[in-house]
Amino acid sequence: MFYLIYGKDTYRSREKLNELLNHFKTKVSELGFFRIDGESFSGQEFEELLKARTLFEKKYVVVCDRVMENKPAADFVIGKIEQCAESENIFLFWEEDLDDEILENLKKRAAKVQIFEPLSGVKLRAWFGEKKISAQVAEKIIAQCGSDLWRAAKEIEKYQLGSEASKLEKAFDYNPFAICDAFAEKNKAKAWILYQQAQMAGVEAEEVFYKILWQIKNLLMVKKLLAADAKDIAKESGLKPFPAEKAAKAAKNFTEEELENYSYEMLRIYHEERRGESELPIEFEKFLVS
Predict the structure, then answer these.
(1) What are the φ/ψ torsions at residue 89 (nearest 5 degrees)?
(2) What are phi and psi of 62, to 5 degrees?
(3) How many whole angstroms separate alpha carbon 281 and alpha carbon 19?
(4) Type and span of the H or E element at 197
């Protein structure tokens, strides 16, 4: 059999996936759990899991994470959907978005379908009403985070822990360019200290993360222009003259390969956070000091 959990509200859909996994962990040992994702999908492995069982496990639980984002993988799975529905093993499909045709094919044979669209209005306030915070605090967080429950959950946690570091109450004069400059200078110690100061003052890790990502993109763009002997960096990059001049100077501290790798690493951190596989503040800190 298989379950389908999908929707743009990845926070609540991840909660539901984890809830189901915790339920099945009471019935299946750790050896009976498998995870398949769209990037590393193997048709042979999927087919084996449709029918595989051992003497020690009566059932397997298989998490299929964003498999449908991979077109060849989606076509393969849809071709096996009847077998998947009839399998004694349990498949948990987790998707953020699905096209209508795939959705209809899955809904026809799924044992259960749960859709998680972003909350708003009364439903969003009802979600906040289940948390141990005042209505006043809830309204402040809604004004700041909207229906982004990943951000909202972090703000709620700060209040529940009595943290003075909440961004909603911060009084720190945060200078995003200082940490960007430290990164561009390859001064890891300074960048890390500025990041810690920002965190202690309540600046969201995501805010610093996006500033550094912006810096990396600019440095990489300028590095490529320099390699191509561009005559007017400011004009061809779209940056104003002073930032363009700073970027051209800083770009000399890096190889193009370094900047490409930094860009890939930042994207990895972002996507793993969105999938609930890691915590951005921790991974970003590791990135700064690595």
Answers:
(1) -80, 160
(2) -120, 115
(3) 24
(4) helix 188-200
> CA 135 to CA 6: how far, in whole Å?
29
Query: Which pTM does this prediction carry?
Result: 0.57
- Report residue 192: phi and psi, to 5°: -65, -45
Which is higher by pLDDT, 1 or 241?
1
220 token code pair: 């990489």
DSSP string, 41-54: --HHHHHHHHH---
DSSP-assigned beta bridge partners for residue 242: none
229-281 pLDDT, tens digit each: 877 777 777 777 887 888 888 888 999 999 999 999 999 999 988 888 888 98
E strand or H helix at 115: strand 112-115
Pseudo-torsion of CA 41, 47, 53, 54, nearest 10°?
A: -70
Task: At 112, list the tokens.
Answer: 């259960």
Q: What is the CATH number of domain 176-289?
A: 1.20.272.10
> Whose CA is closest to 82, among 1, 173, 160?
1
* CB 219, CB 266: distance < 8 Å: no
Task: Yes or no: say if 49 and 89 are a contact pair by the CB < 8 Å rule.
Answer: yes
Q: How confident is the model at residue 46 (pLDDT cuts 50, 70, 90)?
A: very high
User: Strand order in 2-6's β-sheet?
Assistant: 33-37, 61-65, 90-95, 2-6, 112-115
Q: Measure the CA–CA gap between 91 and 1, rounded to whole angstroms.
A: 6
User: Which residue in the block uniquely carries the two structure tokens 């209005």?
Assistant: 121
Angle, vertex CA 147, rays to CA 288 and CA 111, nearest 5: 100
Q: Which two tokens stand for residue 157?
A: 């946690």
Longest dimension (CA), the chain: 70
Least confident of 197-201, 249-253, 283-287: 197-201
CATH entry, 2-115, from 3.40.50.300, 2.30.30.240, 3.40.190.10, 3.30.70.20: 3.40.50.300
